[in-house]
TrEMBL record:
Residues 1-38 form the Concentrative nucleoside transporter N-terminal domain. It is found in: Cell membrane. This is Sodium/nucleoside cotransporter. Its main location: membrane. The lineage of its organism: Eukaryota, Metazoa, Ecdysozoa, Arthropoda, Crustacea. It comes from Halocaridina rubra. It comes from the Eukaryota. It holds the Pfam family Nucleos_tra2_N. Belongs to the concentrative nucleoside transporter (CNT) (TC 2.A.41) family.
Length: 373
């Protein structure tokens, strides 16, 4: 996939076209949000009114596609392709394909009836896929931040097979799968018509938008609190002001990893900050910080590309609770198994994201030349 997007001119042109169409599609959100919020959208561009509105509109449209069976068809075909090319089981493949479009708790709903009888390795693959990818709704929000759409789209697609590969490295299969592609049947929704489906999509997105806003408020406040507390402790022992801010600590801790991914050493501290934010807080905060760095011209094109790929995934501390809560509700009898492998799965998900960022960094030269840089 990396070769297709970053090395093959035709594949890159396809993704460029797709990214442009997605950006145009998302821009229509402003028409609706400006009608409700007015100048807060176009003139002031306040985050809550401009960016979070994208999530509502995207969920609205996706639910309509589900009603007509379009999304189910795409997921089944992509799952079949992954199963044939990688050799994973039917449930693993369908879930991985769904993770490209859906979140870590929404995608497993497609295989919910089969979760109780899945092997531990299969459950590990399901969890790893959720940690290694991001939902289409928040992907749309990151694009609206100003992060490169082509990189985001390709990273989301590349992370699905990478997650399956790392999942099997971390937890190899030793049992026999009890499901096949023929066993999996994904039915359309129960809505009365497409309007009912659209309203369901909006209703389902409201808690997500509220959760994103609440988390951003609390985590940004908590980061500021920790930064000032650590800075105060450091100043007591004679260090300069702002040396011990938590962002700096993240940068120092994750500098070696950023360098290993291919980031120039002089920019490793900045990218290390982003990786730390993504791992300890969440990827939404990290992408927001990345967008600000891009706008301020603090990162080179290479560092920007690698960071965009490395941050693509739900693999963070808070996502562990979300994953256990979501999957545990679908298969209560497997909660013990899930709890024993979830930490391994989140590490595997992070490794999958880092692998795709390494691939992007390796193919960076062609990426630059194709853009005339």
């Amino acid at each position: 996939m990396g070769l297709i997007v970053l090395k093959w001119s035709v594949g890159e042109a396809i993704f460029k076209c797709l990214a442009a169409k997605v950006a145009t599609f998302l821009a229509f959100t402003d028409e609706g949000s400006s009608f409700v919020f007015g100048l807060l959208v176009y003139e002031y561009e306040i985050f809550a009114f401009k960016v979070l509105s994208v999530t509502l509109f995207f969920s609205f449209c996706i639910q309509i596609l589900y009603y007509f069976g379009v999304m189910q068809w795409i997921v089944i075909k992509m799952g079949w392709f992954l199963q044939i090319t990688i050799g994973t089981t039917a449930c693993e493949s369908v879930n991985a394909a769904a993770n490209i479009f859906l979140g870590q708790t929404e995608a497993p709903f497609l295989i919910k009836p089969y979760l109780p009888k899945m092997t531990k390795s299969e459950i590990h693959a399901v969890m790893t896929g959720g940690f290694a990818t991001i939902a289409g709704s928040v992907l749309a929000a990151y694009i609206s931040f100003g992060v490169d759409a082509v990189s985001l789209l390709s990273a989301s697609v590349m992370n699905a097979p990478a997650a399956l590969a790392y999942s099997k490295l971390f937890y190899p299969e030793v049992e026999k799968s009890k499901t096949t592609t023929k066993d999996i049947k994904i039915e359309k929704g129960e809505e009365a018509n497409w309007l009912h489906a659209a309203m369901t999509g909006v209703t389902n997105a409201i808690p997500m938008v509220a959760n994103i806003a609440a988390n951003l408020i609390c985590f940004y406040a908590f980061i500021a609190l920790c930064s000032h507390f650590l800075n105060w402790l450091c100043m007591l022992v004679g260090t300069e002001e702002e040396v011990c801010y938590i962002e700096n600590i993240f940068g120092w801790v994750f500098m070696p990893l950023a360098w290993a991914l291919g980031v120039p050493w002089e920019e490793c501290h900045k990218v290390g900050e982003l990786i730390g934010m993504k791992t300890v807080v969440n990827e939404f905060v990290a992408y927001d910080a990345l967008a600000k760095m891009i706008q301020a011209g603090e990162l080179s094109t290479r560092a920007e590309l690698i960071a965009t790929y490395a941050l693509c995934g739900f693999s963070n501390v808070s996502a562990i609770g979300i994953m256990l809560g979501g999957l545990g509700t679908m298969a209560p009898e497997r909660k013990h198994d899930m709890a024993t492998i979830v930490v391994r799965a989140v590490i595997a998900g992070s490794c999958a994201s880092f692998l795709t960022s390494c691939v992007a960094g390796k193919l960076f030269g062609h990426f630059l030349s194709s853009r005339g840089l």
